[in-house]
Design brief:
There is one protein chain. By secondary structure, the chain is of the alpha+beta class. The chain has a single domain, classed as 2,3-Dihydroxybiphenyl 1,2-Dioxygenase, domain 1 (Roll). The protein has six helices and 16 strands. It has helices at 22-33, 84-93, 152-163, 181-188, 192-199, 235-244; strands at 12-19, 36-39, 50-54, 57-64, 74-80, 97-105, 109-115, 121-127, 142-149, 166-170, 173-177, 208-214, 225-231, 248-256, 259-265, 271-277. The strands form two sheets. An eight-stranded mixed sheet has the order 2-3-4-1-5-8-7-6, covered by helices on one side. Strands 10-11-12-9-13-16-15-14 form an eight-stranded mixed sheet, with helices on one face. Helix 1 runs antiparallel to helix 6 (235-244) and helix 2 packs antiparallel against helix 3. The longest helix has 12 residues, at 22-33. The two termini are 28 Å apart.
Length: 286
């Protein structure tokens, strides 16, 4: 996909965490993904914000736990919008809540923290100087975001109203599609549509912006939430490094459509998925 310099409304664009001890967890992510870190906050700021980079491209950040925010640490999804205040208003109208009202983040941008009707929390990002992740779909970079939900149809009503998303049925499940996103990708990377077609993806997949991860009915303790997936070149190697540096493998590695994946918990409890692209798994049924 190459380098990114911004997104369009309705596309996940950034991820960061809330960690109680930020600096203690940096070696873990260096080992798993090869991230290099820079604190991008002013020297006199009350907290630090460690931006993670690969080849000088921004991929994610390790943030501080806000006062009163309980553990464990967690990864958060940001969705690009042209107007954070308008997105917050749409979320309220559609039955969601505004957990944190829109506010300016210095010269970086403007954001709000929103909750969908099922309780899944996410952020919206109105960019100024910070254009989101500039490297995606590479080793150690953001590969996918997903909504774990018990009620995809109700979720479609909410996210459709806020972002224009539609549910796209797939041979291996469901995904969120943003009509016209494929046209945008083709415009910024001519020939992408043809290159994707050669790999045989399902119809409409080029418009996909996020995954839908149904929560099983018998999993009564699991709440709706957003998930984060990073690409890796070798999932077994990522799992080995995670264990060596104090992480826990929650699930996998296991084969999945188009990939081989594992779910990992970092030393402070933040859960994420790692995914290795495996073309031979394109027809995997589970």
């Amino acid at each position: 996909m190459g380098r990114r310099d911004g997104y369009i409304t309705g596309v996940p664009c950034w991820v960061d965490t809330s960690h109680a001890d930020q600096e203690a967890v940096l070696p873990f992510y260096r080992a798993v993904f090869g991230w290099q870190f820079e604190n991008v906050m002013p020297a006199d700021a009350a907290s630090k914000y460690f931006e993670a980079r690969i080849n000088d491209g921004a991929v994610a950040a390790i943030g501080a736990t806000p006062p009163g925010d309980p553990p464990p640490a967690r990864w958060k999804t940001y969705i690009w919008v042209d107007d954070a205040d308008d997105a917050a208003a749409k979320a309220r109208t559609a039955g969601g809540q505004v957990a944190v009202e829109p506010f300016d983040v210095g010269d970086f941008g403007r954001m709000a923290v929103l909750t969908d009707p099922e309780g899944a929390t996410f952020c919206v990002w109105q960019a100024k100087e910070h254009k989101g992740a500039t490297v995606v779909n590479e080793h150690g970079a953001l590969n996918f975001n997903g909504l774990a939900t018990r009620d995809p149809e109700s979720a479609q009503a909410f996210y459709g109203a806020v972002f224009g998303w539609k549910i796209l049925p797939l041979p291996f499940g469901m995904a969120w599609a943003l009509p016209g996103y494929g046209d945008h990708l083709e415009e910024r990377s001519p020939g992408l549509r043809a290159r994707m077609a050669q790999m045989g993806p399902p119809d409409g997949f080029i418009d996909v912006v996020a995954a839908i991860e149904p929560i099983e009915d018998d999993d009564s303790e699991k709440a709706a939430h957003w998930t984060v997936t990073f690409g890796v070149d070798d999932v077994e190697s990522a799992v080995s490094e995670a264990r060596q540096f104090g992480g826990e493998v929650v699930a996998g590695p296991f084969d999945a459509p188009w990939s081989r994946v594992a779910v990992i918990k970092d030393p402070q409890g933040a859960i994420f998925t790692v995914s290795q692209f495996v073309l031979d798994n394109k027809d995997f049924k589970g």
